[in-house]
Amino acid sequence: MQKKEPAFPSPTTDSASSAVRLAGFQFPTDTPSWRDWKWQIANRLTRLEQLEEAIRLTPSEREGIRLSGGRLSMGITPYYASLIDPLDPDCPIRRQAIPSAEEFTNSPYGMVDPLAEDSHSPVPGLVHRYPDRALLLISSHCAMYCRYCTRRRMVGEHGRAIPPQRLDEALDYLRSHGTIRDIIISGGDPLMLDDDVLEYVISSLRAIPHIEIIRIGTRMPVTLPYRITDDLCAMLRKYHPLYMSLHFTHPRDITPDVAEACGKLADAGIPLGSQTVLLKGINDSTAIIRELMHGLLKIRVRPYYLYQCDQVIGTGHFQTPVATGIRIMQELRGHTSGYAIPTFVIDAPGGGGKIPLNPDYVVASEDGRLILRNFEDRLFEYRESSHDFMLDNE
Ligand SMILES: *Cc1c(COP(=O)(O)O)cnc(C)c1O
Questions:
Q1: Catalytic annotation present for 200
Q2: Is the CB of residue 184 below 6 angstroms from any atom belonging to ligand 1?
Q3: In this predicted structure, what is the pLDDT of residue 70?
Q4: How far apart are CA 301 and CA 267, in angstroms?
Q5: Which of 62, 79, 103 is the endpoint of a domain?
Q6: Are 225 and 138 in a shared domain?
Q7: Atom of ligand 1 nearest to the CA of 305
């Protein structure tokens, strides 16, 4: 993509007023172009100088930005940057978006492709791990590059969209594999593509008789909510049943603009789910996850998965102990709406797929007698009638 100079005034202030400098980015948020998603993409923050004056960067961030050229470069939409607290180095928005030097330290179990997606790709761009569903990667770009990205090996590279020939190969594969009933369109972010390109892909998939449901995995409603236009929704609703998996990390991801975008999608009849990655120092507490899940339900997004952070090179500093996720699940179940509770999973290294992890609620089990623990830690006995029935009939 061509890089343009920002159309908004540089955050640098010649008046040298520290009040202005420390107030963060001075974006003209009231202009029509602010809500134009292409303007947002064209004006992404990609350079150290753009951040330097608006945010009090730490030495680690400065180093991280310098080192992060090439793959998974820094790229932050003005919208998402406007949510950053310029004075707080621990700001959860900031830590998702701004690289740090820790990305370039070695973590002991870091892998390039931890989910072995490349070796489960019968055709480049198509990951076929489960018999009945497949993942189609159609874009290698995103509006904002999450610093904990699992696909950092391929994201942010040149060549924005899947080449037409590769797409044809993927479609041929899908047409000839009748067991695939569920297709997930992902990337990068598929909503980086223009509506007409996206519609070509979706309509081609819809034309395959054995594909029952289509899902789109996107973070656009969070990082660039203005991408969710009326035109986009009008196009998508023609291809039901169509689901969307969104990606929320922190309660601060949910703004009025995000609520509006999710409302439009929900009104278009698209069931919305959210996938959240547990990240050290960003959202690894029950209070934050609970607040996020409650916030999601209010904007009609159903929590879907809570992920253990994949062991990708450069993300060691985000990893939490597995016990943290299990504890959070235990502190949610029974204490809030079942609808607010995602499934905690580890996507198994080596390509084993998603494996759910749960607190253990079965304390003991013997001869058709189970001792169960409830959410208040009280014990209950459950006798299996099927077990007695079996004995009676022996
Ligand atoms: C996550 C994933 C899916 C979908 O899994 P669900 O549990 O059905 O959401 C499919 N294929 C691949 C390769 C995946 O990583």
A1: no
A2: yes
A3: 67
A4: 12
A5: 103
A6: yes
A7: 9
